[in-house]
Amino acid sequence: MQYFVTSDALASQKTDCIAVGIYNEGELSPSAQQLDKASQGQIKRIVDNGDFSGKPGQTLFLHNLAEINSPRVLLVGFGKKTKTTENDFNTATSAAIVALNESGAEKAVCSFTDIEVNNRNTAWKARQIACNAETALYKYSQTKSETKSVEKPLLACTISVEQDAADIQKAAEQGAAIGAGMNLARELGNLPGNVCTPTYLAEQAVALGEKYASINTTVLEEADMEALGMGSLLSVSRGSRQPAKLITMEYKGAGD
């Protein structure tokens, strides 16, 4: 997925969906208040009718609100105001991405950085939104004969902020990279043992080292470990037909 950051006014955004936060008891976040004002109170009326409680992870789509350029508005619950935890934020943003991915919206604006989360700053929130977007959409399929794909998946997520968007773009990119790394670890963990052998893991580690200059990968073979006196590790590997590998990956820093 692609990630962008914008500080443009929400109501004027030309996108497939705008997602905003709602607290418990129907209290609107600042971004939800903007859309409510633009739509002449339509969001507040729906919330006041009891259709949305605001519990973390709850979602509700609204369609074709007056004076809103986007054809969809997604309400997302974040729990109690001033008591929204990191876990609540992660639960809510993950649920929002899943709902957006299944809605037919290919582009969406997520306005969640105005949610109060234990003194977390905007960069942290943007990083978590992108990270959670990556991990929420992960599905294991490599050894499955049949997998169901989404017909029109979410392709781009724009994070709405009040400050200079350029300062937050890097945080979003970092979050996406962290999420991709988590998904790779999950993929390797989900593979059966006869596929994800020590040799297979070593090949993946070497490939990452070749792809990214910031990663230095070293693979020790059994002879190398024998020379280093690593008898305990080798004694375990002797119970397997697969040769042991010791993989070290050194991160040398991203640089400027």
Commentary on this structure:
The chain is an alpha/beta fold and 256 residues long. Helix content is 40%, strand content 17%. The chain contains eight helices and eight strands, in the order ββααββαβαβααβααβ. The protein has helices spanning 30-38, 42-51, 86-101, 122-136, 165-190, 198-211, 222-227, 231-237, and strands at residues 2-6, 17-22, 59-63, 72-77, 107-111, 156-160, 215-220, 246-251. A six-stranded mixed β-sheet has the order 1-6-5-2-4-3, sandwiched between helices. It has a two-stranded antiparallel ribbon with strand order 7-8. β3 and β4 form a beta hairpin. α3 (86-101) crosses α4 (122-136) and α4 runs parallel beside α5 (165-190). The longest helix has 26 residues, at 165-190. The two termini are 23 Å apart.
What secondary-structure arrangement, pairings included, does this model have?
Elements (H helix, E strand, L loop, with lengths): L1 E5 L10 E6 L7 H9 L3 H10 L7 E5 L8 E6 L8 H16 L5 E5 L10 H15 L19 E5 L4 H26 L7 H14 L3 E6 L1 H6 L3 H7 L8 E6 L5
Parallel strand pairs: 1-6, 2-4, 2-5, 5-6
Antiparallel strand pairs: 3-4, 7-8
Radius of gyration: 23 Å
Strand order within the widest beta sheet: 1-6-5-2-4-3
Helix and strand element order = EEHHEEHEHEHHEHHE
- Main beta sheet: strand number and arrangement? 6 strands, mixed
Share of β-strand residues: 15-25%
Low-confidence stretches: none
**Helix proportion range:** 40-55%
Write down the overall mean pLDDT. 93
User: Number of DSSP helices?
Assistant: 8
Cα separation of the termini = 23 Å
